[in-house]
């Protein structure tokens, strides 16, 4: 999808909160398919994440760089990064989504964080590298199929108090390559 086309598919914060996320004319700027936006997409990139902004259905900026995300309440952040991502790949971020679960526990809002939760990068990669018949993004019907029909990551099935103790979940962050390219390669 060209950058000009992608810009036409971007949405406002209000649209992503109150609009019909699964309207047949919606175009996802992650996978390019109709019927959903990036914030609900099941189709990970080659690294096992969803890259872009789930608030604006945008690839022009990330969740970490979204000016609207910075101003959001904890509950709203949980909605975008956990509730809407249950049984789906994580939104790529430099901060682990499990930190939101910990904050919710500290504030007594853990009811939003019960498993099944977001896929780990490792689980997403297993599905990507596995048989095509097991790749749910090939035929998932957004808005009609329940997310409970998607694969469940065994690492994120526990209650919030147990999830925050799992070291693996705290490591679920985007680790950008150092300047000069891939690790071990310098230019």
From TrEMBL:
GO molecular function per UniProt: nucleic acid binding; zinc ion binding
Domain of life: Eukaryota
InterPro entries in alphabetical order: Znf_CCHC_sf
Protein name: CCHC-type domain-containing protein
Species lineage: Eukaryota, Fungi, Dikarya, Ascomycota, Pezizomycotina
């Amino acid at each position: 999808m060209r950058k000009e086309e992608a810009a036409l598919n971007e949405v406002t914060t209000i649209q992503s909160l109150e609009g019909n996320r699964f309207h047949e004319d919606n175009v996802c700027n992650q996978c390019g398919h109709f019927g959903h936006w990036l914030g609900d997409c099941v189709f990970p990139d080659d690294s096992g994440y969803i890259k872009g902004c789930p608030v604006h259905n945008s690839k022009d900026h990330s969740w970490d760089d979204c000016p609207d995300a910075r101003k959001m309440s904890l509950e709203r952040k949980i909605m975008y990064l956990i509730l809407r991502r249950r049984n789906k790949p994580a939104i790529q971020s430099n901060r682990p989504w499990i930190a939101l679960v910990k904050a919710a526990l500290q504030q007594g809002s853990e009811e939003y964080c019960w498993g099944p939760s977001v896929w780990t990068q490792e689980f997403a990669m297993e599905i990507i590298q596995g048989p095509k018949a097991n790749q749910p993004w090939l035929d998932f019907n957004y808005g009609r199929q329940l997310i409970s029909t998607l694969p469940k990551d065994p690492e994120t099935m526990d209650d919030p108090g147990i999830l925050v103790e799992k070291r693996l979940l705290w490591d679920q962050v985007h680790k950008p390559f150092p300047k000069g390219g891939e690790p071990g390669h310098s230019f």
